[in-house]
Amino acid sequence: MLTRFISDQNLPDFMQKLRKFGGIEGPLRGEDGGVRFGNLSDGTTPDIHAIRTLLPAKKYLFAPEERLFNYTLQEGYKILLEDISPVTLFALHPCELAGINYLDRLLGGDAPDPHYAARRSQITLIGISCLPDEFCSCHISPSPLQALSDIFMNIVEGGFVVTVYSSRGKEIMEDMKDLAEERELPVPQDARRFFGVSLPLNVMSEIDTGLPEWQKLADRCLGCGACSLCCPTCACFNILEFAGLDGVSSERIRYWDNCLFKSHSMVAGGAVFNKGRAERFIYRYRHKQRGFGPLRGVPSCVGCGRCRAFCPIGLDLRVLTELLERSAV
Amino acid sequence: MKKLRLAITGMTACSGCQLSLLNCENELPDLLEKFDFSFFPLASSPLDLIGEYDASIVEGCVSMPHEKKLLLELRNRSRYLIAVGTCAVFGGVAALKNDEEREVLRKQVYGSSSIVESTFRPLPLNNLVQVDASITGCPPEKMELLRLLGGLLAGALPVDSDYPVCTECRIRENICLLTERGELCLGMLVSGGCHARCPSMAVPCEGCRGPLPEANLREALRIYAEKGFDRETVFARLRRFCPEWRL
Fold first, then answer.
1. Which residues of chain A does B187 touch, with a Cβ-Cβ cutoff of 8 Å?
2. Has residue B47 been placed in a domain?
3. Are residues B123 and B52 part of one domain?
4. pTM, entire model
5. Are B142 and B184 within one domain?
6. A225 → closest Cβ in B34, B170, B179
7. Angle A277-285/A212-220 helices, nearest 10 degrees?
8. Do residue A240 and residue B166 have CB atoms under 8 angstroms apart?
9. pLDDT digits 0-9 by tens, A235-272
10. Which B-chain residues 176-235 have CB contacts (< 8 A) with chain A?
């Protein structure tokens, strides 16, 4: 197969040229050992082999805390859209791309969220191939490699095989002609090595809410929110409005929320729909594996494994996946 | 708009919460436009309580008869009474020895001196009066105090948070001090709102903001045990800021 190949030696030059198209954000390993998406300024080396970052690239599209509106007496509510500079997100795994694909449908669909849309329009996505570990669950339903990226880099011996999926990607690669060479190479469609058995997801069926496993999970859950904060597709939010010190103005702020919190299903008057943690787990599972609302039937779990890896007590919803998806066959 | 009349004072405490408000230097001119700080002994010469207040903002726990009298007086004169800081909300460090006899404690500190004022077991405000809203923290974040005051102007009280320190710690992408470093961090049991101030500096959470309403103490104790911290050690630290911690 005739491919476009960029060697490991040429990667720094590739990155340098890429900076012409905007800032680059990619996985960086900190001194504390944690891997986070951060600015790949000149001289920094991305950790392209890191399995997962602490937070997904979601943070660039949907900020943990975002000012949505200001209110003033003169102008009423005014939407706040800051100037956003072009950003290239570098070395995104297929699950990360699938997560952004899901957020695009959720927040950038028919009635796009203006804040999301503004950020998204400035973002270029460069995917990279990866090797799943024991926390991943992309084997249950593999996230498509061609999902979304502008450019995808398949790691092969000595470098990368680069595939272009969009006009923006094409424009970038036009500029990289001197760094990429055409090579005859055998490239597997999907370099990921899967383990475990894929399960047929019965996305439209009802789930058995009577299983004792729900309560077992609930008894152990700390309610810390780690599982949804680090989830590439969790986009539930809370909105609070704070009054200004002039007695007239205010600002409305959106925060990341979590379905394991009590306030998540609290309504006016203080009633709570999902009182117990077990009910909240059922809700979470339904959302992650079956989808709901306009996205019913679209699982939102992309298999990145963060919820398992970062849960302080290692809770694993795959147990439920096994039970529910097998029994529903 | 008429200025809101405020009474701001402290009971048994270090005055740190009131100082946090006074440290909002950039906002103080704006505050003076909208509020009449009618009674604020820490900031201006003490005056008598006069008339009614739109809100009383009270720091500290109650441990002396004259404090109790003042608190009841403030309650009677105020539309809202707001507890500010961990001591006012949970008892705080002054209540650390609430399980021990007062007389023993008095002798330990003051010996045989007879000039000591009479005290009783330190109590959070809501043990004595109805509290309309609370802001926890040792001290509370400046932003929380300013939002409280902005809210009062708009006729609103602050909402309680129901997420732990861990939530904000994860958002800041910190390495978990408990699971990764084996340190006794109380983050998962303690109310958030501080943006994980301490863990973000690699200092374990000491629990200064008090218990998370839905804290899973049983599971937490199991993890702490796994990391080598026994029940007594964990409770000793938890009770530093909130003596009411019980399993």
1. 224
2. yes
3. yes
4. 0.92
5. no
6. B170
7. 110
8. no
9. 999 999 999 999 999 999 999 999 999 999 999 888 99
10. 176, 178-180, 187-188, 212-216, 218-220, 223
